[in-house]
Write a structure and sequence with these properties.
By secondary structure, this protein is an alpha+beta fold. Helices cover 39% and strands 20% of the residues. It has helices at 2-20, 37-48, 73-83, 89-92, 98-117, 131-139, 172-182, 206-212, 217-221, 224-233, 240-253; strands at residues 25-29, 59-63, 66-67, 121-126, 155-162, 165-166, 186-187, 199-201, 257-264, 276-281, 286-290, 297-306. Strands 1, 2, 3, 9, 10, 11 and 12 form a 7-stranded mixed beta sheet that branches. Strands 4, 5, 6, 7 and 8 form a 5-stranded antiparallel beta sheet that branches. A hairpin with a 2-residue loop joins strand 5 (155-162) and strand 6 (165-166). Helix 8 packs parallel to helix 11 (240-253) and helix 10 crosses helix 11 (240-253). It is elongated, with a radius of gyration of 23 Å. The chain starts with a helix and ends with a strand.
Length: 310
């Protein structure tokens, strides 16, 4: 008996770690007694991830037949992110990210001084980038991420010049990158699969950003299906950052309220409205989610759980 107990104790940390390393979680139907506005927003984003990622526009929210509105600052941030086609994430999250933005600004200044002390001409050609521009760069093949550190004012693109001429390719970028790394920045020349020698950023990858600032998971959830496709199709050495992000998002979601995968037979007629709806009934155990201009569906309420590894 004692031997089995020892084996069990040794096995438990391995099981826990295996779960924490999972890139897959599942929404299990459960009885939900209470939920709040943030839960409604999270379920809307979860279901809309399967749609076109468009703006929600005006939203109608109900819990047990009673209309609810966001009142706390975080819920208002979530709503502001949902209602716009291209929310200005740099200003929306500037207060939350202020320590990182200030530190990054100081590092950029130090890097600029260091490079200019070598007698080289350097300037930052882009720092803040809006989401519309980010999508354009992806469409042109000039970026591989749908949500960038640029969108949060935590990355910058460096331009080096010689005799007034912009250097598109130069060994100087490698030296600039080494100087940036010495200052605690992360250099795009080290990116696997899509190196970007003129890029510097505050943190190593999106997973590190979300771990440090968990509220940002709400923004990355919008593109979960995109990350999942990259992970499924990519070579392990090329998708490590994507894997870390999925694992981080999953770890943060476990235990949270969710809209379970398969739609229910509707207890009433769909609303078929141009408005976005999230209506929850804890007694009946369902949530109705309707993105703007799309069909709505009923889902069982549940909670996110890790998928047991086979």
């Amino acid at each position: 008996m004692r031997l089995f107990l020892v084996i069990g104790l040794l096995f438990l940390p391995w099981v826990s770690q295996a779960q924490e390393d999972s890139v897959h979680i599942v929404c299990r139907p459960q009885s939900i007694s209470t939920l709040g506005v943030r839960d409604l927003f999270s379920m809307y984003r979860q279901r809309d991830t399967l749609q076109s990622h468009g703006a929600s526009g005006p939203m109608q929210l109900q819990i047990n037949g009673r209309e609810v509105m966001p009142t706390d600052s975080i819920s208002k941030l979530y709503l502001a992110s949902l209602v716009a086609d291209y929310p200005a994430l740099d200003s929306l999250w500037s207060s939350y990210l202020q320590p990182e933005i200030q530190a990054f600004s100081a590092q950029k200044d130090s890097l600029l001084q260091h490079i200019r002390a070598k007698g080289w001409a350097m300037r930052y050609v882009q720092a803040i980038r809006n989401l519309k521009r980010q999508q354009q760069l992806n469409a042109m093949g000039r970026s591989k991420v749908l949500l960038s550190f640029h969108n949060f004012n935590l990355a910058a693109d460096v331009g080096l010049y010689s005799r007034g001429r912009y250097l598109r390719r130069s060994t100087r970028y490698s030296q600039m990158g080494q100087a940036a790394k010495a200052l605690g920045l992360f250099w795009g020349g080290d990116f696997v699969g899509f190196p970007d020698p003129g890029h510097v950023q505050r943190l190593v990858n999106s997973a590190a950003l979300v771990k440090q600032y968990p509220l940002l998971a709400f923004e990355f959830e919008k593109y979960r299906d995109h990350y999942a496709r990259i992970y499924a199709a990519g070579r392990p050495e090329n998708v490590q950052d994507t894997r870390e992000l999925l694992v981080t998002l999953n770890t943060l979601k476990v235990g949270q309220i969710c809209a379970c995968q398969y739609a229910l037979i509707p207890p009433q007629n769909n609303l078929f409205s141009e408005s976005a709806y999230v209506l929850a009934d804890t007694q009946a155990g369902w949530v109705y989610v309707q993105p703007r201009g799309s069909n709505g569906y009923y889902y069982a309420l549940g909670r996110w759980e890790f998928v047991a590894k086979k």
